[in-house]
Amino acid sequence: MKKAIAWAVVVAALGGLGWLVYRKLTNPKEAVSARRPGGAVPVELTPVQKATLHEVERLTGTLRARAEFVVAPKIAGRLEKLLVNIGDPVKPSQLLALLDAAEHEEAVAQARAELAVAKANAEQVRLGAMLEDEELAQKAAQAKAEWAVAKANADQVRLTAKLEDEELAQKLAQAQAELGSAKANLEDARSALAVAQREHERAQALREKKIMSQAEYDTADAQYKAAKAKQEAAAALVAQKEAAVRSAQVRLSETQKGAREAELRHALALAEQKEAAYRTALVRLSETQKKAREAELALARAQVENKEAALKAALVRLSYTQIKAPAWEDGQEPQFVGERFVDEGAMLKANDPIVSVLDIRILKALVHVVERDYLKVKVGQNVAVTTDGVPGRTFAGKVARVAPDDTEASRQALVEIEVPNPERVLKPGMFIRAEIELERHPDVLAIPRDAKVWRNGKQGVFVADKAARKARFVPITPGIEDQGLLEVLDPPKELEGAWVVALGHHLLEDGSAIVLPEQKEGLTHRPQSQHRREEKAGVPLKSEIGNRKSETK
């Protein structure tokens, strides 16, 4: 607290001293006493000229990398190998570190095994569905044949029952003939069954030895079953014909008429039974059963897809043990390791930092601009950047981004300047000075900045009338300043080709007599070039002082 009070007293004393000096220099009454006898004031003149002026904002800031990212693992694990160190170049997709991968390799092997089991199960379901469809088709064909036989038998019984007694003898003969034919068919069916049985036994033996394929074996088995069914049908037909012969013999008598009717009822019932069996087989071959088998197969295939996804996930987790640099733009240009956070053997959690990688081909200079100049800073403006770290060199940059808001605490806005760094001599963190060209006014009317004075609350200059040896006050509207020159906005006609008082104007009033340089002993005319050289070699410009204060802040 005492230190702050002491500083306040010093600042107040300096301010009071400055005010006294200013009053002494600008008080007309005191100025009159400084004039020569006779009232004329010695002055020095400078011509009004045309020049191109620049408004430059001088700022300070810090360099940052254009891009910086931290390399971190996506999974937890022990850091087995770190392949880069601080300052090493890094290319896109370069392998940077390795995690312990033993556990993840085991997970991949297990996932592969589970996938193989799921595929085998799906294939088994598919083959089972195919075999079941073939078996059901065979049963349906057999049931249809039996139904046809039963229908024929019923029809035969029905016709036989309607015959008159005189026709029974003829039917008996016909039945006997049919019996002979049926027996011949039965013999043929038995021979075919014997051949099919031998073929089936041979196929079964070859299948057990794994010489014959499953498809060939299924074909032989189907042929055997068909031959057996045909033999059974032929035997049934023979039996039927024999029964028909006997029935015809019995039906020759009236006493067997009731028996024939009962036989007809039995034949009709048998036909109905065979029809029901056939329809049952058709139902099993219907779309409903087919969809059930398809659903079972779809479930098995879904399990295969699930195991494939699990294998892919295991492979992805295994790939996470190889930590690589991401791909970036600008082709194969390397970036550099900026910082190393861990050592080999460390146990890492997911997203724990390992190293940081910096892009320093182009750096960002972060500076802050005050409210007064905020709207003058535009994206694309040229910037000259210097730093004490690289003395004697100026680096060209451009304004890349301007923050859309001011910081409330400082009333300043952030400006990002991109500075190309092909030689990589600039480093992130360096303190820099930036000069931004805010405005450029070509071919404007300019006067020396020190020629401007205040009279009666107005800014202006004293124009020398060489013929009358008098100074006339001309009000002006000042513009931008550049290297000791001041722009005159909307210049009055009096300034065109005129000479203005550059030294001694603090003793003048409008219409004061002056002593020109050629009238003064030992005093010469000050050319504009000499005036500007003296400004550069002498006291710093006000704008520079202000900028240095802002830089200090």
Explain what this protein looks like in three dimensions.
The protein has 553 residues and is of the alpha+beta class. It folds into four domains: 32-52 and 442-552, conserved putative lor/sdh protein from methanococcus maripaludis s2 fold (Beta Barrel); 61-65 and 360-439, Efflux pump adaptor protein, beta barrel domain (Elongation Factor Tu (Ef-tu), domain 3, Beta Barrel); 73-98 and 321-348, no CATH class; 114-302, Helix Hairpins (Orthogonal Bundle). Helices cover 47% and strands 27% of the residues. The protein has ten helices and 21 strands. A six-stranded antiparallel barrel has the order 3-10-13-12-11-14. Strands 1-21-17-16-15 form a five-stranded mixed β-sheet, with no helix packed on it. A four-stranded antiparallel β-sheet has the order 7-6-4-9, with no helix packed on it. Helix 3 packs parallel to helix 5 and helix 3 (102-162) runs antiparallel to helix 7 (287-319). It is rod-shaped. The chain starts with a helix and ends with a helix.
